[in-house]
What does this fold into?
Amino acid sequence: MPPTSPAQPQNEEMLEPQPKFNTLLTIIISVFATTILVGAGVYFVMARNNSSGNQQVLETQVDYLNKKIEVLESQKQANTEDTKNIVNEGKNGEQGNQDKFADWQIYRNEQYGFEIKYPKDLIVNQTDSNIITMGSQATPYIVIERYPSRQNIDFQSFVQEKLVKAFGSLLDVNKIKWAEWAHKEIFDQYVIDVEFENMVGGYTGNVIWTYFARGNWVYRISALQGYNNMDQKTFQNQIIPTFKFINGTANWQTYKNENLGLEFKYPQEFTLKQSDHPHYKTGSFLEVHQSGAEVWSSDVVVSVRLDNAYLGTNFQSAWLTVAYDSDIADLSNCQELHRNRGVEKMTDSQVVNRVTWYKGETSGVAAGTYVKSKVHHTFHNDMCYEVTLHLSIANIGNFDPTSGIKEVDESVVWVKLGSIFSTFKFLD
It folds into this structure.
């Protein structure tokens, strides 16, 4: 078990040493003071020594002081040149960093609120809602993963727990090296670099992964191996400076329901309706009657819908619905997902703004249209709430092959819908 993290300073300032500038200031003050002393000394000596014998002593003293001034002026000039060199070196270094990433792509994730640069020949893939990989067709090079944070556990223990889960007995926890407050020139927060011996995959040897917390999540940025003649550590240090958080929802609209005590944000291109989708009944709370007929017992509070987007593809519609059912009296029943005239218990979960939501998926095909829904339930204030993300696409086979219609990139649409869900919160 690694040592417990020390208390994090509340207002720690990042002070850069400036010896060259301090020396310059001292020299300027010294020159000024010396000049005054010389003038005063000359006046004092001449006033008290009018004889020719003392005149020679006076001239010797003045000559000495003038040489002292010349030395100080020379030092001042040298330090001025050093200062110019420091500034130019800084500008050249900054330009060098910009040139280094000039041909890199920018990956921007509105849902998670961050962006990062990556080599242009790598491919971005998001197979899991909390894992983004960048690599070739066969090999991942960069992984960005986030985990729901937990209370009552220190940060290092949390990170070590995740590493042990990933590597098992192949990880020697006693050899882990922890670098706290890493990358202070980049992150204005507590960041840990973890160095450990990697024994799996295509890269063996010591590697460094970076961890930090943001809101309800812990983020990991890791180069899995070296790239383009760089070893893993060098590649890791190339990636980290390109990462930054963004406010992707700054220009979004806000829906707030004071009666139910909830709100969420949505992009301006979405249309908000105080009702369900006009063509699809989307609430998943179902009551199965003895006759076999299914009726929706929930009330859809609001929906936001995106139409007429992703032109030139088989995209039809994407929407998010918020519903509730006051007849569901406990969490166990709230976890039930009704589909295909059957019931299943949702056990997978995710945390959104400190609320645990249980999730499942449904899908259906009708009249050449494929509809997929990602359902989320939570029990709050004695009611079961549902937030569901929906995507409707047309069968690509229904289009003339010469029409140029392509299949929509579903992952892009799901990220957009997920970014809306990530803003959902209860107001109490």
About this structure: The chain has three domains: 19-100, 104-245, 253-426.
